[in-house]
Amino acid sequence: MIEIFLDDVKVPGLDSELFVLWLNEVIASEKFDCGDVNLIFVSDEKLLEMNQQFLQHDYFTDIITFDYSEDSVISGELYISIDRVSENGLKMDGYDNELKRVCVHGILHLCGYGDKSEEEITEIRAKENFYIDKFVSRGTN
Known about the structure:
Order of helices and strands: EHEHEEHHH
CATH architecture: 3-Layer(aba) Sandwich
């Protein structure tokens, strides 16, 4: 089950029900079953603290993924900085697309995709774009 939590932040334009349906479709398309997946939206400061504590990185990031998956069952926690999503959205394809990109990026990590090498980055970006293009908003007929 995918659940969404807000840690003292607001996430403008987030249609939780639609997002959960979409991410479940991503997981199924990747041939996995969905276990417990939590999307936790936090501030820059909170994610920086976590980045320092758990990864020994002293910089802002948009997402940290904790993978608890076993076999074909996807489980984990995605900590997402809504501040980074907002700021990066201004530089990229807009806030809505950046929100989708970061969330599906974390799900793809749980599915086994990496982003350390150039090859891995190319592959995960292509998957992100593929699934973002499949997102259907409630306003679409």
